[in-house]
């Protein structure tokens, strides 16, 4: 499933439903801000140094770059890196299998391995490191969107739905409409506020008791099995939530009501997990990366 944007980027900006990209821009930026709230100060310096950014949006402001890059001729090869096409049978059975589902051109999981290893390799150039870091910030986000871990109907892009009276598709409401409704907007400032709400839940609220278990299985020497845990985790929600009501319901009901209400706790927690895991993954990289 590739997220096939039906809007060219310029039109998306002009459109009322801004942000046609994967986890729309808001989701990725939120994940960037959450990660900024949890990385060590050494990691913060490491990332700011690579990116050449000194402000307090250093991860959030690069989190959507990969979605523009894939539409350039130089970056076209990276399109398959935004997803893994799980050949499972939702909503009956969900699973992701790396050897079955990661295509010949690569997938989100092989890309995590490639770009993590580039950052750990002293022969990687400065320019390559910048792209590698920006891709990792983005891809950890994509891996946590359940429909980026699903093959069915191009990850739901071909499932037409209604949302707030608007015709769209199932992939798009998970990327964009539902998180934007929850955050109350799509600007960087909305992402920052949404991130601080989810950060508080991790630090002191409803996610506190479980958040350390979100880091289970993380091993810098094995990026494939580490990120497969995240992909399997997100993919399980395709069965339990995303497609659970069945296609007949999904394609005949406006999904901004009950469906939104049922989905909200799921995407909120997935966005929180993505940010928290990204912070830890960057901490591991920064602690082992060659000094520049
Ligand atoms: C932070 O700096 C980057 C790079 O200079 C810039 O693109 C971005 O707009 C800045 N963000 C904020 C919120 O100032
Ligand atoms: C690894 O990253 C480089 C630089 O973006 C890219 O050219 C190459 O195709 C990638 N390889 C794999 C196996 O993803
Ligand atoms: C924590 O995780 C356990 C096991 O996955 C789950 O049963 C429990 O509901 C979670 N607790 C909260 C507060 O989400
Ligand atoms: C809705 O989904 C069902 C499959 O569950 C399919 O038979 C039907 O053609 C779909 N309707 C529309 C309008 O897409
Ligand atoms: C969704 O939840 C909100 C807030 O709890 C509630 O006001 C609303 O009635 C719910 N909508 C539906 C369709 O259940
Ligand atoms: Zn993407």
Automatic annotation (TrEMBL):
Q: Which domain of life is it from?
A: Eukaryota
**Annotated GO MF terms:** endonuclease activity; hydrolase activity, acting on ester bonds; metal ion binding; nucleic acid binding
This protein's record includes keyword S-adenosyl-L-methionine: no
State whether keyword Disulfide bond applies.
Answer: yes
InterPro entries (UniProt xref): PLipase_C/P1_nuclease_dom_sf, S1/P1nuclease
Q: Which UniProt keywords apply?
A: Disulfide bond, Endonuclease, Glycoprotein, Hydrolase, Metal-binding, Nuclease
Instruction: Report the record's Gene Ontology biological process terms.
Output: DNA catabolic process
Q: Which residues form a coiled coil?
A: none
* Entries under SUPFAM superfamilies matching the protein: Phospholipase C/P1 nuclease
Which Pfam family, any one, appears in the UniProt record? S1-P1_nuclease
Its family remark reads: Belongs to the nuclease type I family.
Q: Which PANTHER family match?
A: ENDONUCLEASE 4
**Can you say what this protein is called?**
Nuclease S1
Query: What is the native source organism of this protein?
Result: Talaromyces rugulosus (Penicillium rugulosum)
């Amino acid at each position: 499933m590739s997220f096939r944007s039906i809007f060219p980027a310029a039109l998306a900006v002009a459109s009322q439903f801004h942000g046609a990209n994967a986890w729309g821009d808001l989701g990725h930026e939120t994940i960037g801000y959450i990660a900024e709230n949890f990385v060590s100060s050494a990691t913060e310096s490491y990332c700011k140094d690579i990116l050449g950014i000194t402000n307090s949006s250093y991860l959030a402001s690069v989190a959507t770059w990969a979605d523009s890059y894939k539409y350039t001729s130089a970056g076209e090869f990276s399109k398959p890196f935004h997803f893994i096409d799980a050949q499972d049978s939702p909503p009956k059975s969900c699973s992701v299998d790396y050897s079955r589902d990661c295509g010949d051109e690569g997938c989100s999981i092989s890309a995590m391995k490639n770009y993590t290893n580039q950052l750990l390799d002293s022969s990687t150039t400065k320019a390559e490191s910048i792209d590698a870091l920006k891709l990792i910030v983005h891809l950890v986000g994509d891996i946590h969107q359940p429909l980026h871990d699903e093959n069915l109907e191009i990850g739901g892009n071909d499932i037409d739905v209604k949302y707030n009276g608007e015709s769209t598709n199932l992939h798009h409401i998970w990327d964009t409409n539902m998180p934007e409704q929850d955050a109350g907007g799509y600007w960087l400032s909305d992402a920052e506020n949404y991130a601080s709400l989810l950060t508080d839940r991790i630090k002191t609220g409803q996610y506190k008791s479980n958040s350390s278990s979100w880091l289970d299985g993380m091993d810098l020497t094995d990026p494939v099995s580490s990120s497969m845990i995240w992909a399997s985790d997100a993919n399980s929600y395709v069965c339990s939530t995303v497609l659970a009501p069945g296609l007949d319901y999904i394609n005949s009901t406006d999904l901004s009501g009950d469906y939104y209400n049922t989905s909200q706790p799921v995407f909120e927690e997935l966005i929180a997990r993505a940010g928290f895991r990204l912070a830890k993954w960057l901490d591991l990289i920064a602690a082992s990366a060659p000094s520049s």
